[in-house]
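Notebook B, p. 112. Complex prediction, attempt 2.
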Amino acid sequence: MTRLAAMISSNAFADEAVGYLPSLMSVALRLTRSQAESEDLVQETFVKAVRAEQKFEPGTNMKAWLLKILTNTFINRYRRGNLEKSIVDGPQASPMLDGWMSTASMGAMRDPESTALRPILEKEIREALESLPEDFRVVVLLSDVEEMSYKEIAEIIDRPIGTVMSRLHRGRQLLKAQLVEHARAMGILPDEPPTAEATAPVDMAAYRARRARSA
Amino acid sequence: MNPCPRYGGWVETYVDGELLPEHVVEFEDHLGDCSHCCEGIRFEEARRQSTRRAVQSAVAITPEFQARLRAAMDQARSCEPEVPRLLPRHAGKDRGGLPPGALGWRAVIPLSVAAAAAMVFAQVQNEGRKDAPLAEVDMSMVPRRVSLASTATTDTMTSVESFLDELTQYYSHAEHPFATGTLPVAVSASQRMPRNQLLPEVAAPLEAPELSALGAVWEGGHLRQSRQGRTTNWHYRVGGHRVVVSIYDSQRVPLRVLLEPRVARNKAVFVGTRHNYAVAAVESNGVGLAATTDLTPYETAELVAAAVH
């Protein structure tokens, strides 16, 4: 390849990469919670991508490749310490959370007629996302926003698919819980008595066993 | 209604499209009898849609950030160790310990063009003072911003048409800058100078760059006077292709009025073809930089954009 062709090829790579800027920015913004930091994170990601251009295999998923660089950069730059600390050990681990949302509640929450409330709910959704622990936030963003497969997410975060599924489930449950709480506060949802399952004594042994399986 | 005890945990995986094929049939069969799972699917789909909308609507990508990003990427590319560095050649002189003349393609044209641009700018500034010496190189005169085309008069359009014809006819006829032969009629006088005479002529500290390490050859420079003003033409041969880079007065002949605006390397470049040759130009502060080649318009636009900092 002549140097001219190599130069043009390199520009084509950069042009394709920059085409994914909106996706990278939306993920970076939710990870860093700061416009300025998200721009720095994205810029660092693209610089690394350009320097590692030779490692990218043409024809493969460039978006996933870039998100992997971004995620790793975020983890290395912004987080230190034990990343494997089990988030489900914290107060957000609620064994009562699973499966107590009624059919009527779900229908009311997703009511498309509530357009007047949409901007408020979008703000709440963003805040709910940002309040998620980072491990959950990353996978929820990659799945729900960027529509990546479990396999792609597993490759990006360098974890087994089972871990991806577990974090997705926990992250979404936490999101749901926050949104339901907000919907009740706004009167979108009536207070409803908990189900029989929710009021039954919690079987901690079963809960711990379930958690150990999903981790 | 109590949640579905058996299939409730499949809802998310089903909406994710990750349910095992053998489970999909079973689950979809179940949906016919379970309003809770049906509502769960609708809720999950609505929640994801809301989440996507909430996240993507908040993203703000400013033009300043895009420009900063492009600059950072260009800088990262230019810092790659395999890209040779530009070293000016001092004919017959010791290199002072500098490595052999490996050159960065992106640096070669800017060096020569910067000096030539300064010369043309000085020419414009000294209009009417024909005896005044040309100014030395002023790097601040190197084009940095380009303004888009504005309304042009018929006379201007005619001049630009003629100038485009000149560029391409010059390209097609001037196989060698020192070739003899008939020049276009519009050219009233021309000066063909050997390389070692260029220095006093351009009054700039110009050293001819050595391109042999790139497999490219600098074939010379050519000052040409025509009705459209004075033009400097730098000749290169890269990868078997001739490239002529022309520095001209873009206030007198704004090529942008006839060429198509495009974006290359985050810069506004004006591109077109004439007589089967590609012409791409960047114009700023009255100085125009045009590349005429037998490459594609896209490649020519990339070349001229790379030449402008």
